[in-house]
Amino acid sequence: MMTFDSEVELMKVARAHPKARLVLRIATDDSKAACRLSVKFGATLKTSRLLLERAKELDIDVIGVSFHMGGGCTDVEIFVKAISDAHCVFDMGVEVGFDMYLLDIGGGFPESEDIKLKFEEITSVINPALDKYFPSDSGVRIIAEPGRYYVESAFMLAVNIIAKKLILKEQTGPDDEDESSEQTFMYYVNDGVYGSFNCILYESAHLKPLLQKRPKPDEKYYSSSISGQTCDDLDCLVEHCNLPEMHVGNFMLFENIGAYTVAAASTFNGFQRPTI
Question: Which of 199, 231, 236, 241 is an active site residue?
Fold first, then answer.
């Protein structure tokens, strides 16, 4: 069982594995998603009919439809449109002569609490749409790919401060604020965007550091930034946050780091991937 979205893939399957059961992947409107998978994958409705007809000519069995909205989706209504489009493709399949019985609604479902669109908001829209277009008596098996939902909150990343720089802002006049507000700290930690924090570059993730020890109530906070350990200026994790003064050797913690992080890490600049 495998997906396809082009005639070239159909020709490969016909040549190498003609008994495969195929799932036609359709494109979605993922313009409001952080990870726009349909830029790379998926067939349009018009192309879908041509592909189904070609599959029939090649005597290859197409058993269903799949789509994937991509991570970071901010508009629940596009799920409804995707499910509606999938229903259209099912109708096309019947017209062409296929008995299609599988719908894969993909993934991209959020797990963490600090995102704009909650999981429950998405399911409250998906479930009625599935009931409408693929009711229980339709005989269609519905599956999903909720990888992020299961593992995003399963891991926390601990990073160690390996360097620190104090920046003193130039005073411009007698009305400047007190001395502490003129101090900015830059911290460098032993992981970065080429390692576990690649989600910042590829998924536009916004991460907040947690301190290993709770600050004292009267402790001063300073404008701070956090960067990775590589030589690249892109390797910035947090451009601005307020932190008490930290020191080399202290740890910072980052929650919800279990999805698309260390799995896509590299050893750029010779730095090893973190130990799990």
Answer: 231
Question: Do the Cβ atoms of 242 and 209 come closer than 8 Å?
Answer: no
Neighbouring-strand partners of residue 142: 103
Instruction: Find the angle CA(202)-CA(222)-CA(234) to the nearest 5 degrees.
Output: 25
Over residues 198-229, the pLDDT tens digits come to 989 887 788 899 998 888 888 899 999 999 99
Phi, psi of 245 (to 5 degrees): -65, 125
CA-CA distance, 102 to 140, in Å (whole number)?
5
In order of 76, 180, 187, 249, the CA distances from 245 in angstroms are: 42, 11, 10, 13
DSSP β-bridge partners for residue 54: none
**199 an active-site residue?**
no
pTM here is 0.81
* Residues 162, 157: Cα–Cα separation, whole Å: 16
How confident is the model over 67-109, as pLDDT tens digits?
A: 988 766 667 888 899 999 999 999 999 999 999 999 999 987 7
